[in-house]
């Protein structure tokens, strides 16, 4: 089975290498990496339309694993679109975006390049997973890779369970394996940022701003990804790109425009 790996931290990030290493040891799984040549965090679902995309094989990364690594001067969505339509010859069985450095919980999915990479695959009709290691400072990606691989195995065994346009968003606590309580299916929670803009003045007297966000998490609903991760569970959340509010749609059918 052929599995495409991408991310938004860049092709040299430890998370994607850990995922490639994990999959390279699986029988009948053929991973291929197509990822941005530099960090593309918080790019959302941006695509590149005003410059050409260039692809380079990064042999020094893939040689030990016998896995092809390709870098692209674009976004995660560019990488997935390009891989599916131009780079990978055979049909893909799965796309995994990650392992991201840092959480992608709740409303993070709207900003995340990691989730958008998986979402692009879903749009193109390929089952996909977005994977994130919640603790930004935690450096051991092996546990996250193991859990992601476990979920990937379930997806590969049950592809018919997925409707078109749906992905699984996984968030793994930054903890040793023995401290993680297990895996829970969750809903998206409420994780917002209290945006703090620090105003500064450059040497020419012009004002500029640095944005830094303080995270505000709502853990009142114990079935959300935010709450489950805080309780040291791996959170697996089904996400789809159809953002239509069907309840409101039905309520407005009687409007006369």
TrEMBL record:
Signal peptide location: none
Entry protein name: 5'-nucleotidase SurE
Protein origin, superkingdom: Bacteria
GO cellular-component term (any): cytoplasm
EC class name: hydrolase
Molecular function terms, GO-annotated: 3'-nucleotidase activity; 5'-nucleotidase activity; exopolyphosphatase activity; metal ion binding; nucleotide binding
UniProt catalytic activity: a ribonucleoside 5'-phosphate + H2O = a ribonucleoside + phosphate
Domain Survival protein SurE-like phosphatase/nucleotidase, first and last residues per copy: 3-194
Residues binding a divalent metal cation: 8-9, 41, 100
Gene: surE
Keyword annotations of the record: Cytoplasm, Hydrolase, Metal-binding, Nucleotide-binding
Keyword Hydrolase: yes
Role noted for this protein: Nucleotidase that shows phosphatase activity on nucleoside 5'-monophosphates.
């Amino acid at each position: 089975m052929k599995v495409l790996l991408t991310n938004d931290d860049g092709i040299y990030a430890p998370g994607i290498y850990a995922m490639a290493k994990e999959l390279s040891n699986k029988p009948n799984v053929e991973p291929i990496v197509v990822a941005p040549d530099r960090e593309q965090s918080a790019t959302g679902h941006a695509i590149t339309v005003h410059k050409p995309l260039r692809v380079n094989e990064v042999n020094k990364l893939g040689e030990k694993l016998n896995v092809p690594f390709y870098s692209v001067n674009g976004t995660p969505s560019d990488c997935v679109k390009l891989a599916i339509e131009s780079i990978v010859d055979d049909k893909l069985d799965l796309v995994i975006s990650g392992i991201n450095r840092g959480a992608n919980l709740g409303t993070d999915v709207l900003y995340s390049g990691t989730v958008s990479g998986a979402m692009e695959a879903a749009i193109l009709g390929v089952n996909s997973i977005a994977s994130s290691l919640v603790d930004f400072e935690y450096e051991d990606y092996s546990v996250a890779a193991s859990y992601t691989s476990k979920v990937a195995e379930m997806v590969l065994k049950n592809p018919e369970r997925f409707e078109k346009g749906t992905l699984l968003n996984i968030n793994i606590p930054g903890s040793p394996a023995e401290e993680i309580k297990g895996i829970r299916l969750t809903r998206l929670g409420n994780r917002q940022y209290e945006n703090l803009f620090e105003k500064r003045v450059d040497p020419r007297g012009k004002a500029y701003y640095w944005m830094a966000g303080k995270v505000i998490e709502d853990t009142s609903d114990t079935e959300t990804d935010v709450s489950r991760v805080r309780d040291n569970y791996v959170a697996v959340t089904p996400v789809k790109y159809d953002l239509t509010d069907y309840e409101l749609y039905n309520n407005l059918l009687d409007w006369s425009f």
